[in-house]
């Protein structure tokens, strides 16, 4: 069982009412059971909803009460993100998921990089609030980019092989 951001499976749970459907993640679902979760919906937020970012740090700092999740008007929505992360962790525990594939850069699901907190489209180092909790509980957290990296590596190796055989 692998926990997956629901938007990657084509579910319209993204803040703007759309999704982040990823064909490679869907393909994986043919081989391994996937458990879809949307931490922001599990936290009680509606869809569509306002876009938010983490100000003052990343998900780890949110759990340490050093950073907050805010919308563009500066309103604090941190409590929804904490609740959503706890509910997501409960889902992981009840289904026995040890691995999660989560949407990159999101203030909930991002792993390794998230939006800057300034609503300027830039990224900073850090995890989303849910990803930080899952990592703390020792789940392996990946993003959908792992598949594109693998594809790129495969294409690169194939090109090299073809180049050498000429
Ligand atoms: Fe996708 Fe995660 Fe955002 Fe939900 S919270 S829409 S699963 S990135």
Draw up the topology in text.
Blueprint: E1 2-5, H1 23-28, E2 34-37, H2 39-42, E3 52-55, H3 59-63, E4 68-71, H4 78-95, E5 99-102, E6 113-115, E7 123-125, H5 129-136, E8 140-143, H6 145-165
Parallel strand pairs: 1-2, 1-5, 5-8
Antiparallel strand pairs: 3-4, 6-7
Helix pairs in contact: 4-5
The structure holds iron/sulfur cluster.
Residues 5-7, 13-14, 38-40, 103, 106, 108-109 line the site of iron/sulfur cluster.
Attribute tags:
6 helices, alpha/beta, 4-stranded parallel sheet, binds iron/sulfur cluster, 166 residues, 37% helix, globular, two-stranded antiparallel sheet, single chain, 8 strands
What is this structure, in a nutshell?
This protein is of the alpha/beta class and 166 residues long. It has helices at residues 23-28, 39-42, 59-63, 78-95, 129-136, 145-165, and strands spanning 2-5, 34-37, 52-55, 68-71, 99-102, 113-115, 123-125, 140-143. The chain has one domain (2-162).
């Amino acid at each position: 069982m692998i926990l997956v951001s629901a938007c990657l499976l084509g579910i319209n749970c993204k803040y703007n009412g759309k999704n982040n459907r990823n064909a490679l993640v869907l393909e994986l679902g043919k081989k391994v059971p996937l458990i879809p979760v949307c931490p922001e919906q599990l936290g009680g937020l509606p869809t569509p909803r306002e876009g938010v970012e983490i100000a003052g740090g990343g998900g780890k700092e949110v759990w340490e009460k050093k950073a907050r999740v805010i919308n563009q008007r500066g309103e604090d929505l941190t409590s929804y993100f904490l609740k959503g992360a706890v509910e997501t962790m409960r889902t992981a525990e009840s289904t026995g998921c040890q691995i999660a594939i989560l949407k990159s850069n999101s203030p909930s699901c991002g792993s390794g990089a998230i939006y800057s907190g300034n609503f300027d489209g830039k990224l900073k180092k850090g995890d989303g609030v849910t990803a930080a909790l899952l990592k703390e509980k020792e789940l392996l957290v990946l993003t959908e980019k792992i598949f594109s990296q693998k594809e790129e590596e495969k294409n690169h190796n194939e090109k090299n092989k073809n180049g050498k055989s000429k």
